[in-house]
Specification:
122 residues, alpha/beta, Rossmann fold, 5-stranded parallel sheet, 5 strands, 43% helix, globular
Length: 122
């Protein structure tokens, strides 16, 4: 379980009701709060939420948000992207600190939380 970042929300960006539901369940099981936005928020709104992690539901969304991702780097907010194994390298090129590989499992979700919790903002 994540301790230091447990009180900060995980921000989920995208519109995939099945994946949203699954990640909501994983977040609850991890003792975390998940906040969802179907649209990409302005950087100021994201920073104000003080998320422990931002998860983009697709590589397409991550690619669309490149200017935002570059700005988030200065705020030390970790970014994850849902991707296939074939898309993992592309996700990292686009600025993802971690990938939730399809099919997303609880262990994969937990590993993303653990990997990003100590590496950036605390």
């Amino acid at each position: 379980m994540v301790s230091a970042d447990k009180q900060r929300p995980i921000l989920l960006i995208g519109a995939d009701s099945q994946l949203d539901y699954l990640l909501q369940r994983y977040a609850e099981r991890s003792g975390c709060h998940l906040t969802t936005s179907q649209a990409i928020l302005p950087v100021g709104e994201m920073v104000a939420l003080q998320p422990a992690l931002i998860i983009f539901l697709s590589l397409e969304l991550l690619e669309t948000a490149q200017e935002l991702v570059e700005q988030l780097v200065t705020h030390d907010i970790p970014i994850a992207a849902c991707a296939s194994a074939a898309g993992e390298a592309r996700a990292r090129e686009l600025g993802a600190d971690y990938c939730l590989l399809h099919p997303v499992t609880y262990d994969n979700f937990q590993a993303a939380l653990t990997a990003t919790s100590g590496s950036k903002q605390s």
